[in-house]
Design brief:
Length: 504
Amino acid sequence: MADETGLNPYYFPLEGGLVLDQPTFNMSPGMALELLNYEPDIRGGYRRIDGYLKWNPNVVPYTAADTEPVLLSAFFAGNNTVIAARGTSVYKAGTTGSWTAIDTGRTGAGKYTHFRYNLNGTETIIWADGANHASKYDGTTVTDLNATGAPADPKFVIGYKNAFFFAGHSSNPEEIVFTAPFTDDDFSTANGAGAIRVDSVITGLFPFRNELFIFCEERIFRLVGNTIADFQMQPVTRDVGCLNGFTIQELAGEILFLGKDGIRTVAATEKINDVNLGTITKHIQELFDNFPDVSQFDSVVVPGKTQYRLFFTNTGKDTTAKTRGVVAVLKDKGFEFSELEGIQPASTDFLVVQGESYVLHGGFDGYVYRQEQGNTFDGTSIIGRYRSPDMTMGDAGLRKNFQRVIINYAPTGVINSDLFIRYDYEAPTVARPAAYPFDSSQIVALYGTSAYGTATYGGQSNPLVRQPIEGSGFAIAMRVVDNDTSSAYTLKGFQLEFTAGARR
């Protein structure tokens, strides 16, 4: 129905995230056919992501070649440093100064797992690399965990029930070794240490709701009980496994992990000892097809955004072999997704310390980076792209003469983007208007404060850009392209205004 100006308004909020498994004309208007380097915002809309900056301006020293990646990047609250592993050594550094070696001689180390704890009043971190004995660091001293009974080369280490559990040993990849209670270095069975076997290669360990989940290549188990005297191994499923333990994270009371068919959750139900398994990425399944190397996956949680980030290189889909990623955000109606490009982690970590979030990744270039910082990828522009479905406004047979689009957005500073309008499914015979600049230098109208053409920027958190547009069609789609160093912002929704044309 036309308003007092004679225009028909059609408003739609941006929600639903990236959807790749539906025809464009079947999608809800707020969904996205393309959503790159935008993240579904828990407050609504799609937010251009923040950047990352170097944690320390100095490169982590390498051992043999400058191509060695940073295989451990962990924040250590005991002295506000980052622990980083590269080559055969482990280093520490604050935000300034050089990297100091604290552990050397780690020959053949792979990607590290780590666990932070305070067992005896001292902040401590323990790490394992799949090729050497695990080690612990208390802020002063590194100690190898090589006592009798200790695994020689564990890949995974986790704390659970006041003990420490190790898995991924080269000699027995189906075994879990655990310490005696309240110790990190006592492997004596007489004191309560021991070992447990499963019937599949272990790919990860994760404590969750008073249980220890053991992820394997083809199945999942959980360990229940308090001590070796009452430990029980229970199958969760013998039909689903985890491809890579570095994809396992907890998000809003759910365990997320990568299975053969995409990202899955292990969700506890109200029924005791009942666990539901479900795939959450069916709408973007094509992104997970034909991975050549599952060892390159990594993941991190962004606290405060209810957000899980999965990073991978899919050379089967990306001929440039760029590191890409998927963002999963848990909202009221379920998970929404987007894509990432430009973040290349060889290792990751996150931690909240006194209300401040630290989201880190170690790079393939030898540096450690802190995510959620700045407006660039360490000086490189963030390329963001959003594309709407093709919308008919409920009447595919009616031609619409479009007059204006109103962009509802929430800025955090100066922005500079381009808006593209496309008609009738981008048919080559249909005219394509040039880009419309969408930036904070435009005149901005605010709800309840201004008349069209007279407002100024900055009056409210959700201003409206009223952009005249040209063209007509039976369907319309919009694309926003951002390739700048400007501040992050959130696209909230669009209102299209048109007059009715001829019917076909």
